[in-house]
Amino acid sequence: MNLLKEITIFDLNKIKPGTKVQVTWYKETEMEYTHNGEVIINNGEKFFYNFIDKEGHVGHCHVNALDLKNYPGSLTVEIKSGGDQ
Q1: Taking residues 5-34, what's their average pLDDT?
Q2: Does the model's pTM come out above 0.70?
Q3: CA dist 66 to 47, 58, 60, 71, Å?
Q4: What radius of gyration, in Å, describes the C-alpha atoms of the chain?
Q5: Which end of the chain lies in a sparser environment, N or C, as judged by fewer CB atoms within 10 Å?
Q6: How far apart, in whole angstroms, are the C-alpha atoms of residue 47 and residue 38?
């Protein structure tokens, strides 16, 4: 497993389908929650991922460049492992 590294708005094209990611929304607020998931689609401007939350529910979500630009302090995306990077 690779070391965790934070992804910025400029790195979206590095998140290939199959990449495992950890996405923390609303970091350090009352609404903070974290998804551990796998990227299923990436079109360069946004990526979609499936995740399993801490209660065991399976879900589907996406992150786009505007999310990262508009909430730089509260949204963190980290690559957990490879894909074909």
Answers
A1: 80
A2: yes
A3: 12, 25, 18, 8
A4: 12
A5: N
A6: 10
